[in-house]
Specification:
Shape: globular
Radius of gyration: 24 Å
Distance between the termini: 50 Å
Low-confidence stretches: none
Length: 425
């Protein structure tokens, strides 16, 4: 059977999965969590094989960090599945109830998008999170992971698919793609796939958008900024900056650029330099920064760069307006933060910075579906249509209008024989 035929079978399974009850979907999720725990040694063995191959192929350290799947990550994803189970049913929720006329009642009800194709990077835990979210939201999933995680993804997919289908979900509710050539075929399946979510480089996401008729949701780069205002609390700010940069440097929500108000630069930068030195972070700074602390020179290329490494660029700005202009021009509209004790300044920053997440006095690393209480996420969207920010259950829903009548015809309303009286129920 060809790939397009397999994808068509997933499309046929979509209405069946969409019609399942909350109890059925939660039962499947519980079975998946149990199976992952039962088969964890096999999963870890496969992951070690991927790590070995990646090192032999000189895969960069940030990707190795994402690729590693250990007891801690397994525990986190199983916990995330159980959190999803506890969440209310996102489906069949009435968003609008309106009587158009006597005996003619309109309802808007949440429903799954249908078939979601997700092309993601080297994180095996992403496969589990995406699968779990799709099951809970009643969406069929087509999953294409990176080749560097092939062994890990294969056993994870087999484990989850076997568990959920044995629990009663449709056999074709999930499909795994492995070959790079499968992506091109997937992009052609606009009649069978309702949404694509690519997770990868800017160039890769742009390629997906330019080569398919399927709607695409997602983000490319994660160039996140922290702006330190003149009224920032330095003692509070330093741990926030360090956490944003170093807690997990390979994440898309790690800070890459630090903007510092000129009035606080001489107080902040020496103390910050020491803190960064302890974390082995390379500093790249403008000439004004180099006049205050020792660092490597930065260029405009640094303003455009998502390092995903222990590197941060630093620039001194004259005021908050300059910081906002810099962020809106160079940023990826992902997550940006202001450090200040001036709430009016924070309000202005949050109003004018055009990003999916805008923060005051906290780490950019909070930009995450799990940390938002969404259970997990399929990715982070920097677009403004359909979903924005961490995409959890709500971002995987659409809705349909259900109209219940009793013999009404439009002709009676066109001739004036009957009239609408629109009344919310």
């Amino acid at each position: 059977m060809g790939l397009q035929e397999k994808i068509a079978q997933v499309k046929q399974a979509a209405p069946l999965l969409a019609a399942t009850s909350l109890e059925q979907r939660n039962k499947a999720l519980a079975a998946a969590a149990k199976a992952l725990e039962t088969k964890k040694e096999t999963i870890f063995k496969a992951n070690k094989e991927d790590l070995k191959n990646a090192k032999e192929n000189h895969i960069p350290e940030p990707i190795l960090n994402r690729l590693k799947f250990d007891e801690g990550k397994l525990s986190d994803i199983i916990s995330g599945i159980h959190d999803l189970i506890q969440m209310p049913d996102p489906l069949f929720q009435t968003q609008l109830a309106r009587q158009l006329d006597e005996g003619l009642n309109l309802y808007r009800e949440t429903c799954p998008i249908g078939v979601i194709g997700v092309i993601f990077e080297s994180r095996p835990d992403a496969l589990v999170q995406i699968s779990a979210l799709c099951i809970k939201s009643g969406n069929c999933a087509i999953l294409k992971g990176g080749s560097e995680a092939m062994e890990s993804n294969r056993i994870l997919f087999q484990t989850i698919h076997e568990a959920v289908t044995n629990a009663g979900l449709p056999q074709n509710c999930m499909l795994q793609l492995e070959a790079r050539s499968d992506i091109a075929e997937l992009l052609e399946c606009h009649e069978s796939v309702d949404l694509l979510i690519p997770r990868g480089s800017n160039a890769f996401v742009r390629y997906i958008m330019d080569n398919t008729k399927i709607p695409v949701m997602g983000h490319a780069d994660g160039i996140c900024h922290i702006y330190v205002d003149k009224d920032a609390d330095i003692e509070k700010s330093i741990p926030i900056i360090i956490d944003s940069k170093t807690q997990y440097v390979s994440a898309c929500n790690a800070a890459e650029t630090l903007l510092v108000h000129k009035e606080i630069a001489k107080k902040l930068l020496p103390a910050l330099q020491k803190a960064f030195h302890e974390k082995h972070v390379e500093l790249r700074g403008s000439k004004e920064v180099q006049d205050i602390i020792a660092c490597n020179p930065s260029s405009e290329e640094d303003d455009h760069t998502e390092y995903l490494d222990y590197i941060i660029s630093i620039k001194i700005v004259n005021d908050m307006d300059e910081a906002i202009r810099h962020i809106n021009h160079f940023g990826s509209h992902h997550t940006d933060c202001i450090l200040t004790e001036d709430n009016q300044a924070a309000h202005k920053f949050m109003q004018l910075v055009d990003s999916a997440g805008v923060y005051q006095n906290c780490s950019t690393r909070f930009a995450d579906g799990y940390r938002y209480g969404f259970g997990a996420e399929v990715g982070i969207s920097t677009s403004k249509l359909h979903a924005r920010g961490p995409v959890g259950l709500e971002g995987l829903l659409s809705y349909k209008y259900k109209l219940f009548g009793n013999g009404q015809i439009v002709g009676d309303y066109a001739t004036g024989k009957k009239s609408f009286h629109f009344k919310n129920l």
